Amino acid sequence: MKVILLALLVALSTGQLMAQRDTSPYKPFAMFNGDTVSYLEFNYTIRGNQYKGWTVGEILKEIELPVLYLGYPRMLISMDNTPTKLTGLGLGIKQTGKNPNELYDYYIYVCFENPPDLSEFRGISRTLTLTPKLYDFIKDLKVLWIGFNEFIIKDPELIEKAKREREEVERRGREAQEKLERRRRNRQQ
Predict the structure, then answer these.
(1) Rounded-to-integer distance, Cα 33 and Cα 39, Å
(2) Can you give the residue range of the structural domain that contains 142?
(3) What is the pLDDT of residues 22-40, one digit of tens each?
(4) What's the whole-model pTM score?
């Protein structure tokens, strides 16, 4: 019983700490002495919940660093494995090599509240450049979630949170795959 009570207290205090961190005010890039990782991590991961309901255009106006490229589109996949919706998009801030790299580059990832049709995005986006036409397409999309590249974060709490979230996504993916496999087997019988 004591262990359960202690676990509840730890969970509550951790939740309160994250809630306190989520209400921190935006800090300008100058306060980070040129440390791009810390700037993006603080403003767009630790404070990430504050952006829910914002538009992509509002975020692009707030961020003090230029968006070098768009990348890492996330898609909703239909039952027949066809991509149907654009659920999110990476906004590349700093490229570490010749080509965009999801593991090493500095980017913020924006997940959309009401994902647009992927076909519309593909019709506009021919490159990873933020063109005026593409800006017009994404600027009014509402934000559901925003975060920073989880592979290069520094904050120990964020590292642990990212690990737990990744494990949960993998678990859900396995469950969905198993469900799909069961449906396929049932259809074949």
Answers:
(1) 9
(2) 27-154
(3) 568 999 999 999 999 999 9
(4) 0.70
